[in-house]
Amino acid sequence: MTALVRHRLFWPAAVLLLLLAANVAFTPGFLSIEMKDGHLYGSLIDIFRFGAPLILVAIGMTLVIATGGIDLSVGSVVAISGALACLHISGLPDQNDVGGVLTAVGLALGLALVLGAWNGFLVAGIGIQPIIATLIIMVAGRGLAQLITDGQIVTVNSASYKLIGGGYWLTLPFSILIVLAVLALTAFLTRRLALGMLVESIGGNATASRLAGIRSRGLTVAVYAFCALCAGIAGLMISSNVSSADGNNAGLWIELDAILAVVIGGTSLMGGRFSLGGTVLGALVIQTLTTTIYSIGIPPETTLLFKALVVTVVCLVQSPAFREKVFQRRGRRRPAAPQATDDEKVEVPA
Amino acid sequence: MIVFKRMSALLLAGVTIMAAAGCGSGGDTTASAGGADDGKITMGFAQVGAESGWRTANTKSIQESAKAAGIELKFSDAQQKQENQIKAIRSYIQQKVDVIAFSPVVESGWDNVLKEAQTAKIPVILTDRAVDSADTSLYKTFLGSDFVEEGRKAGKWLVEEYKDSTDTVNIVELQGTTGSAPANDRKAGFAEVIGAESKFKVIASQTGDFTRAKGKEVMEAFLKSNPDIDVLYAHNDDMGLGAIEAIEGAGKVPGKDIKIITVDAVKDGMQALADGKINFIVECSPILGPQLMDLAKKVVAGEQVPARVLTEETTFTPEQAKAALPTRPY
């Protein structure tokens, strides 16, 4: 039992269960999942479906944060990728043409990679602080998205594009399958191969890792490019889900939610260690919180306050120092590394 | 020290150039103002930004009707920032334009710059959004939509639609951005009209931030927590369009199983209305240009204008939408 409570992910998981329980109390059929039109249908599926873009962005963000950096530009990359894909599809003679849709997806993800590599170049090549380097595309990127869409909402009518964010495959939402694939690939690359350790070593001490023979520059660029790629896929999902690209609002503030998800999951903002499972759990906590607000009918004026309170509680119970003070526990303290993070995350509520 | 000297020299040079430019354009406008008899009016317009399709249509309408009315337009885009708008208005005052028009980004903080315009004897017209200055003499008139009236129009259609029914009508509402004037007023106007009859019940009301993605997400949650929804009232077309997808995903027919009322009448919304997926749209027109130019001419000529001018707006049923769609400019 103590081992369970001591587990790194115990508290975020407990909060997630608590939120779900609150939903069941207010909406009796909350956990029921039924088949409708040949696919699964229910609130739990919704949480995964609407949480999918956030989980993706947060996975990319996790690796960037593990290198000791941060990527503020993901929201703009979301907007740009959706805008470019929708613009290309809207110009196709047949919008359902699979080849054309794939070209659009390729273009959008290609541009996302370029933007990510640019971020990486500014950080690792020139040595600009990550928060400043990525701020450039955060601000300019939204302008770029508006330039692409000409300030309008681009609407597409393509069944093939719709699949990415709003479609189903084998009764499951396609977006969830994409997330699972990206998650599995990332977990394999970072946890089965040495890549994860190399990334953590950059976050621990970039100079030392370089002296130890790790190509930290190239790796940093790759990590930022991967983060932008995740954001690009998330952008495709968001725009495909509503069959339209909104350069102004797509992915607005998603960078803050993603950072929050990473931090709830127990990854240190100082870099040097990360937890993919924790990040996914963190993103699910955020999305469940949003769904809870809708289903139990919290008035919009107090929504932000409610969110901030829940996030603060999550952060406090996660902090070993806080728990020790409040519960007067005298057990062995956990390693000190995560403590700094846990205190910082209180600052982030978005 | 040397660097500092160089920089101040550069700055000086810059100021001189700007002053010269200011003189040039100042002289220009005085000339045109002096020739006011031949009807050439110069207008300085400070736009909010280009944040939505609605706004782009608004900008286009103003630029086109200025050309048509023979008014010289100086246009600036504030990118949603008040300080940019204040800067733009100050530069219009320096350039001695004949009339200044602007859509204030926020409601407060305009008194100083409006007083400067008053001192320079340049009339000011507000468009689309109001300011909260206590001194209403600071501007000549306010041209824009009445958001409360839009809410009332939506409510009236609903009352009419259900006039023969005595059953409870369960309504869900998708609000605009929390705290924004259109969201507050459209909610208030709607509630005022349907509040007269107890059969109308708003069972859930939540913000969808005026976007399709949020509209869809919130509607999905509504559909699960409230099995029996009769009517959806969305504060703009985009949220309604997102909600339509959610309703279709739940295996219901938008427009039939759940009746939908929205506000705005942008192209995609009108298309959905024509397709029968939306039942009623209250127009909120961005085409302020022609009315603005008329007002500008009157104000410059010294004629009295009403302190509040409403935009000419209508409402649309599916049949009217079908008829209007081919010639719709936005």
Automatic annotation (TrEMBL), chain A:
Q: Which residues cross the membrane?
A: 40-65, 72-92, 98-118, 130-148, 168-189, 219-238, 250-269, 276-298, 304-322
Q: Where in the cell is it found?
A: Cell membrane
| GO CC field | plasma membrane
Membrane topology recorded in Swiss-Prot or TrEMBL: Multi-pass membrane protein
Q: InterPro entries this protein is in?
A: ABC_transp_permease (IPR001851)
Task: State any single GO MF term.
Answer: transmembrane transporter activity
Per the annotation, which location comes first and is thus the protein's main one?
membrane
Methyltransferase as a keyword of this entry, yes or no, is no
Q: Where is the signal peptide?
A: none
Please report a single Pfam family linked to this protein.
BPD_transp_2
Task: For this UniProt record, give its keywords in alphabetical order, as a comma-separated list.
Answer: Cell membrane, Membrane, Transmembrane, Transmembrane helix
Protein name per UniProt: Sugar ABC transporter permease
TrEMBL record, chain B:
Q: Quote the subcellular location field of this record.
A: Cell envelope
- Signal peptide from the UniProt entry: 1-21
- A cellular-component GO term for this protein: cell envelope
Family matches, as InterPro entries: Peripla_BP_I, SBP_2_dom
Say if the entry is tagged with keyword Signal. yes
| Annotated ranges, domain Periplasmic binding protein | 49-303
Q: What are the record keywords, sorted?
A: Signal
Family membership noted in the UniProt record: Belongs to the bacterial solute-binding protein 2 family.
PANTHER family, per database record? D-ALLOSE-BINDING PERIPLASMIC PROTEIN-RELATED, GALACTOFURANOSE-BINDING PROTEIN YTFQ
Query: Under what name is this protein listed?
Result: LacI family transcriptional regulator
Taxonomic lineage is: Bacteria, Bacillati, Actinomycetota, Actinomycetes, Streptosporangiales
